[in-house]
Design a protein that fits this description.
The chain has 126 residues and is α+β, with helices and mostly antiparallel strands. The chain has two helices and seven strands, in the order ααβββββββ.
């Protein structure tokens, strides 16, 4: 069986939908009314042994308004952009804990390495 290839462009489209599904499953009604409407990856940062992509993301609040936020995607081990394993960096549907939102600074942090099985606090999925 051949493993599907996922490009960076496709990854961010999938991540947009995954973020929206994660928000829809939150307990807080304010979060459930939000959705992600597109990532604009801008910079790759290789810091020490870590890799991070930053940029902008459109966040929708209900059906009527959108806000421009910043985001950082933490990808673990530093490597050139063309060597990133995009499929492995997309949080599975049964994982949570990988998404953080700061409403004051309008900042989203996506850290797939912090993902854990939903309903199992503290148990990281690696």
């Amino acid at each position: 069986m051949t493993e599907a290839i996922l490009t960076e462009f496709e990854y961010f489209g999938h991540l947009e939908m995954r973020v929206s599904r994660e928000l829809a499953g939150m307990r807080d009604w304010k979060l459930r009314s939000m959705s992600c409407d597109g990532f604009i990856p801008e910079d790759v940062h290789l810091v020490g042994r870590r890799c991070r992509i930053s940029g902008s993301v459109w966040m929708a609040f209900g059906q009527e308004r959108q806000k421009y936020w910043s985001f950082a995607l933490h990808l673990g081990t530093a490597r050139p952009r063309e060597q990133i394993d995009w499929p492995a960096s997309l949080p599975a549907e049964n994982l949570t804990g990988w998404l953080s939102l700061d409403f004051t600074t309008k900042f989203m942090k996506v850290n797939p390495l912090a993902a854990r099985v939903d309903g199992e606090p503290g148990k990281l999925h690696r």
